[in-house]
Design brief:
Largest sheet: none
Number of strands: 0
Distance between the termini: 56 Å
C-alpha cells in the first residue's frame, strides 16, 4: 500500500509541474525528459550496485536508514541529531566526521520514512527534484535565446548531466538547486527585478548548494557578484576589451575576499589542500584512470604550470582511457563530441551585440574556467571528476549550444 501511495504522489507532483508549464514552449519535451531522468536514476542505482559494489549511493541510503531509526523515535532525539549533530545517538553511523554526507543522510531520512525505506522510490523523488530545477533552467534559457534545442540539450538531454544528477546522489540535490539559482540569476539580470518568487526559489536553493558543494557555490557567488558589479560601473557602450578587463579585475578582487569564507580557502591553506586532495586521489586510483600532474607542489608557480592541462581535462577529459569497456566508451564518446562541438562553436564565434550579453558571457567563462581548473586538481580521478564537474558543465554546454545556435540562426 505504501508503494502505491508513493507512486500516486510522484505522479501528482509530476503532473502539477506539467500543468504549471502549460504556457511553456518546451512543454512537449516535459514527459520525455522526465521519463529519461527517472530512468537515469534507476541506472545510477544499478551501476552502483553492480559495478561499484554499492558505493556511495547505496551507502548513503543505508546510513540514512540508521539516522531515521534513531532520530524519529522521539522529538528529543530528532532535535539533538538534526540541530546539535549528536551522531553518537546513531549506532554504527559512518558519517560523523563527514558533514556534507551527514547532511545528505538528514535529507534522505524523511524520504526513507515516507517510502518505507525503498531505495527506488527515494531515487525517483531525488530525480524529480533535480528535474524540476533543470526544467526551470531550460525554460529560462528558452526565454533568453528563443531557441528550443539551445534550451533542452544542456539541461534535459546532455548525457552526463542527466545521468550524474539523478538518483540517490548528492549531485541530484545540488544540481537541481544550482540550476534553479542559474535560472533566477539570468531572469533577474535581464529583467532588473528581483521579485518574491525569485527570492523564494533562490535563497533555499543557494543554501543547499553551499552545504553540499561549497567550492562550487563560492565560485558561483563570486562570478555573479562580479557580473552585477561590472554592469553597474561600466557605461552601456563600453568596448568589449574594457568589459573583459573590468569583470576579471572585479572577479579576482572578490575571490580574494571569498578566500576568507572557509578554512580550506584561506590563502595559507588553499594550495596545500588542493595538493593533498590530488595526491590522495592518485594513491587510491588505478593507473591510467587519474589525471597526472608531474611533481605538483603547493606553490603558485607549480599550479600555474599545470593549470592548462587541468583546464583541458576538466572541460573535455578523458579523451582516452585504458581498458575500454562500455561505460568508458560512453564517456569517451561524449568527451570527443563535446570537444568537436566546442571547436565548431569557436570557429563560428561572434560576440553578443549588447553589453549585458557580453558581460554575462564573460562571467560564465570565468565561472567555468575557474571551477574546471580547481575541481580537476582537487578530484583528478576520471570517475569522480565526471560527477563533480556537471555543475559547471551545465554552463559550459549551454555556452557551446548558444554558439552553435547563433551560427544556425544567422543562416
Amino acid at each position: 500500500m505504501i508503494y502505491l501511495a508513493n507512486i500516486v504522489l510522484l505522479f501528482a507532483l509530476a503532473a502539477s509541474g506539467f500543468w504549471l508549464s502549460r504556457k511553456s514552449a518546451l512543454r512537449p519535451w516535459y514527459w520525455p525528459a522526465l521519463g529519461l531522468k527517472l530512468a537515469a536514476g534507476v541506472a545510477v542505482g544499478l551501476l552502483y550496485s553492480a559495478y561499484y559494489g554499492h558505493g556511495d549511493s547505496w551507502a548513503m541510503f543505508a546510513e540514512a536508514g540508521k539516522l531515521k531509526q534513531a532520530a524519529f523515535v522521539s522529538l528529543g532525539n530528532f532535535i539533538r541529531i538534526y540541530f546539535d549533530g549528536a551522531y553518537n545517538l546513531i549506532p554504527g553511523y559512518a558519517y560523523t566526521f563527514q558533514p556534507r554526507a551527514a547532511l545528505m543522510t538528514k535529507l534522505l531520512a524523511p524520504l526513507n520514512l515516507i517510502t518505507g525505506e525503498n531505495y527506488w522510490l527515494t531515487s525517483a523523488y531525488l530525480s524529480l527534484f533535480a528535474f524540476a530545477g533543470l526544467w526551470f533552467f531550460a525554460n529560462t534559457l528558452y526565454k533568453a535565446g528563443q531557441m528550443k534545442w539551445l534550451a533542452v540539450i544542456p539541461a534535459l538531454f546532455f548525457p552526463s548531466i542527466v545521468f550524474w544528477s539523478s538518483g540517490v546522489l548528492k549531485e541530484s540535490l545540488a544540481i537541481g538547486a544550482l540550476a534553479a539559482v542559474f535560472a533566477v540569476v539570468i531572469r533577474v539580470y535581464f529583467s532588473g527585478k528581483v521579485g518574491k518568487i525569485n527570492l523564494l526559489v533562490c535563497m533555499p536553493a543557494l543554501l543547499l548548494v553551499v552545504y553540499l558543494k561549497y567550492y562550487l557555490a563560492a565560485v558561483l557567488v563570486v562570478a555573479v557578484l562580479a557580473l552585477f558589479i561590472a554592469r553597474a560601473v561600466l557605461p552601456a557602450k563600453a568596448a568589449w576589451h574594457l568589459e573583459l578587463i573590468t569583470i576579471i579585475a572585479v572577479f579576482v578582487a572578490l575571490a580574494g575576499v571569498a578566500s576568507l569564507s572557509h578554512p580550506n580557502f584561506w590563502p595559507s591553506r588553499f594550495l596545500q589542500v588542493l595538493a593533498g586532495n590530488y595526491y590522495q586521489y592518485v594513491q587510491n586510483s588505478p593507473a591510467g584512470n587519474v589525471v597526472v600532474f608531474g611533481n605538483l607542489e603547493p606553490t603558485v608557480s607549480s599550479f600555474l604550470r599545470h593549470s592548462p592541462r587541468a583546464l583541458v581535462t576538466g572541460l573535455f577529459g578523458p579523451l582516452w582511457l585504458p581498458g575500454i569497456n562500455t561505460l568508458k566508451l560512453f564517456s569517451l564518446a561524449e568527451s570527443w563530441l563535446l570537444l568537436l562541438a566546442f571547436i565548431y562553436a569557436v570557429l563560428n564565434f561572434q560576440l553578443p551585440a549588447g553589453r549585458n550579453g557580453r558581460l554575462l558571457l564573460w562571467a560564465c567563462l570565468l565561472l567555468v574556467v575557474t571551477a574546471a581548473v580547481f575541481i580537476t586538481f582537487a578530484a583528478p580521478n576520471y570517475g569522480t571528476l565526471a560527477r563533480y564537474r556537471i555543475g559547471y558543465s551545465l554552463v559550459f554546454v549551454s555556452l557551446i549550444s548558444y554558439g552553435i545556435a547563433r551560427k544556425f540562426s544567422r543562416r
